[in-house]
Amino acid sequence: MPSRSSDPLDAVLTGATEQIRSAVAGLGVPNPVVVIDGRSGAGKTSLAARLVRAWPLPQPVQLLALDSVYPGWDGLARGAEIARQGALLPHSRQRIGRWHRWDWQHDEPAEAHAVDPDLGLIVEGCGALTRASAPLTHMTVWVDGPASARRSRALERDGDVFRDHWDMWAAQEDAHIAREHPAQLATMVFTTP
């Protein structure tokens, strides 16, 4: 059912959630893996949270947000590789995965988290969709939108903490896009306003 929201972002995210939910339900696997990638402020985190709430299978789904994994502001590529090696690869082999939360305050790895191979998994974050990660998934999603709107949303969400790092982070996103072409690897692409 189409969204009746007067908020254009909400309408896109509602429609995207329903499309992904329907596709996941049609996969016919008990523990599907969905990777959601996109630029900062595009709506990836909101989309992932909505998908968790709307998960169509009886078993709950696990969410790994790369914001919890990136090893610092210059760690986009490294964080994506940590998620691939620690969560996606073991999950694809029906083995328990493990990743460590990054403690941004102390600038070091913190506690470990397990990834259950018997449950579905959503990995969300800039850099998550690569040529190496795509074969380990059942569904891949790319989310993007106009730069000014994305920047405004990201800075409203994270404030001055992100403002000082925006250009450095955007350069890492540019490098990821040039290297991996994630929109071309995506089975679904959504553009937010």
TrEMBL record:
Please give the InterPro entries that the UniProt record associates with this protein.
Answer: P-loop_NTPase
Source organism, top-level taxon: Bacteria
List the protein's name.
Uncharacterized protein
Q: Which organism is it from?
A: Microbacterium esteraromaticum
